[in-house]
Amino acid sequence: MMRVKYNLIYKNKSLSPVQISITWNGNRIQKNIGYTVETKYWDFKKHRLKANHSNALKFNSHLSFLENSIIMIYNDKVEFNKDVSKNTLKKELELLINNGVREENKNKDIISVFDIFLNDYRPNGKKPANKTIEGYVNAKNKLIRYMKHHKSQLHFDDIDKDFYNNFVEYLREEKNNSDNTIGTNIKNLRTFMRWAFDNKYHNNTDYTHFKILKNEALFSLALTEDEVKRINSLKVENQELEYTRLFILVACHTGLRSSDLMEVIREQEITNNELRIFQVKTRSTVKLYINDFVVDLIKQLKAIHKDQYDKRFLNRNLETIGKLCKMNETMTSTKIVGNERQVQKKKRWELLKTHVGRRTFATRASEKGMPLHVIKKYTGHKSLDSLEKYLNASSYDDKSILENLFNLVN
């Protein structure tokens, strides 16, 4: 049977810390519960604060909560034949006293815990993709710069509504970040705070109310059918430009991420018009059908591929491809920074990057009626919701769609 009582460590002093004493089966645990009281208000018979103390009801209720909780934990472990060793119950007691925070984690600063998070975080038992980790590192670095800017140290209890407002203002005013960028950093910070909470580094839940800011993407480019045809018909003598031209054509016809397409070019052998690839971001293996035209493009890419042909190389050359194909139409987009509306204009060739191929495939395939779940298989989106946000529906050929519909119903 377990017995619990509270004692003062210094009975003959005016102030004394309160100590909990737990005994069972010849074992004893004694621990400071983190509170100090005036000795004159302590009832040594009842082991509680005297009723004439202004905070007696609340404080004594807390003592009863600790007592009942540790007894309940002990009884449950006994009932189910679990470990009731001194070390086990001491850890349970520390969690109760520290409101869910492990004793060894109490004084750790946010940045050191963030480093542990970057090393140990395993959602669904798998290490996140490198690009995801980069986002978390970026959020950590912005926290560091924020602390330097304010000449202060952050503790877990400081991550509250005031911090949120100040951090958002700092990112807007000092770093000129868009709401999208701020929202991404807040989302990553919330992921870290949830992990730290689950691993008993803190008991602060204010972060769950942090709003993830969003505004529309600055530019959302999907190539038209005519632009794809122009790229296909383009004749270039330069091998680097030819590689880039072939790459964007394959992306437009398959919807593959550039990282996955690079892997296909470097490693995959194509048989029977099928690609069997491991999609890096989703960490899943898929089998995709491709037609003879795409097979031929990939074979040409394999023949001239060089290791230095990376994403940066492709994006640089894609602008040249866009210029050669006379993609000179001006696009206008609005960026919201704080309360300011900023209008930006760019030529379509300036926006031609590797990701445009994937968006083009998704948009044109959806426009022609391909089921979204089939498109998702090629693009590697995790959900239909994320795929729908990726589509550039504003570029649909509404006239053609309606004419086809009218032909269908007439």
Description:
- The chain is an alpha+beta fold and 410 residues long.
- It has 3 domains: 95 residues; 100 residues, DNA polymerase, domain 1; 185 residues, hpI Integrase, Chain A (Orthogonal Bundle), CATH 1.10.443.
- Helices cover 50% and strands 15% of the residues.
- A 3-stranded antiparallel β-sheet has the order 1-2-3.
- Helix 8 packs across helix 11.
- It is elongated and about 95 Å long.
- The C terminus is likely disordered.
What is the strand and helix layout of this fold?
Layout: E1 3-8, E2 15-24, E3 27-38, E4 42-43, E5 48-49, H1 56-79, H2 86-97, H3 110-120, H4 130-150, H5 161-173, H6 179-198, H7 225-233, H8 239-254, H9 258-267, E6 274-279, E7 284-289, H10 292-304, H11 311-324, E8 330-337, E9 340-347, H12 354-367, H13 372-379, H14 384-390, H15 398-409
Antiparallel strand pairs: 1-2, 2-3, 4-5, 6-7, 8-9
Helix pairs in contact: 1-2, 4-6, 8-10, 8-11, 8-12, 12-13
